[in-house]
Amino acid sequence: MVTTIPEGYKSLLSIYDTQKAISLLKRLFEDRLGALLNLYRVSAPLFVDEASGLNDNLNGYERPVDFDILRSNHKAQVVQSLAKWKRLALKRYGFFPGKGLYTDMNAIRRDEDELDNLHSVYVDQWDWEKVILPENRNLDYLKLTVMDIVTAICDTQDTIQAIYPQLQPLGKLERRVSFITAQELEDLYPDFTPKERENAYLTEHKTAFIIGIGGALRSGKPHDGRAPDYDDWALNGDIMFWDELLGCAFEVSSMGIRVDPASMDRQLRLSGCDDRRELPYHKALLNGELPLTIGGGIGQSRLSMLLLGKAHIGEVQASIWDDATLAACEDAGVMLL
Questions:
Q1: Closest Cα to residue 266, out of 221, 223, 216?
Q2: pLDDT tens digits for 169-224?
């Protein structure tokens, strides 16, 4: 995908009002999410020790940003997500089942190969994680959590549109979530790419959760990449909305029930990542020393884009763009922050 600004697009909010609305939107959503999922805000690191195994490997090819520290013999890596750190923090902070945390996560994805309307090298999201009981490791619990997150998003939209009535022409997001597995999606559209399948399904089902991302489908390929050491590939997925402005499926959250020792063992073996077993985090998890959890990330700029009717993520976050993106936005009169 390349940057494409819809013909005749004009922001519904001025730059000044956009900044005010982003600030309000974030406060509203954090409060609603925290209330619905029983989460408490905590502080989180911008970087972690390279040797700790706490950084997220994402799809396995992305290079983390790293640096040495003058007065230490440690090499640090800017986090790519907090998926592993959060689970360790829940243990260290003494959280009980049913309670969890959320925090701001800021990352640099230097190897992002799609600089377009939705993708940037700068990532900002709410990372959240909650302790669960063994009996919660099932699809029903996952689905209930997804519906709570969608409720928080839609409630935030209602309040924002009441305060900024100029946003009301955007309409309302669909609160009813359509659940479908990645395999069912492949079976429906066997000749489509994963992105084409998402677009085809979301055209009809305006809010959806695609279940089961990371493991190979019957075609031999996964729907999308997912690291083997945080989500259980059978109990995870993506929350997506249909974006009328851009005419595409719009991913807001990647989340899931996390691996237990058995599923991590299996996924490390399937992905050829057995070398990670000796890292401190992985040893602790395989030994059953970490709590069972559910968690994920919710894009802050993505959510701001969606609820404020923006055509480009650069209208709600400051980043660095390639020449083609800069030219496309300048030609369309779109101001990037």
A1: 216
A2: 989 999 999 999 999 999 999 999 999 999 999 999 999 999 999 999 999 999 99
CA distances from 96 to 126, 231, 286 (A): 21, 20, 20
Question: Which amino acid, 32?
Answer: R
Q: CB-based contacts of 36: which residues, under 8 Å, 6+ apart?
A: 148, 149, 151, 152
Q: Distance between CA 120 and CA 168 in Å, rounded?
A: 27
- CA distance linking residue 267 with residue 207, whole number of Å: 29
Catalytic sites, residue numbers: 56, 109, 125, 238, 251, 254
Question: Is the pTM above the cut of 0.70?
Answer: yes
Distance CA(3)–CA(118), nearest Å, equals: 9
Q: What is the separation of C-alpha 123 from the centre of its chain, rounded to a whole number of angstroms?
A: 10
Q: Has domain 15-45+81-107+122-304 been given CATH number 3.40.50.720?
A: no
Enumerate the β-bridge partners of residue 124: 106
* CA 337 to each of CA 53, 73, 228, 235, 327: distance values in angstroms, whole numbers, following the listed order: 34, 37, 35, 37, 14
Q: What does R_g of the chain's alpha carbons equal in angstroms?
A: 20
Whether residue 309 contacts residue 290, with contact meaning beta carbons closer than 8 Å, is answered with no
Token pair of 20 as six digits:
């005010």
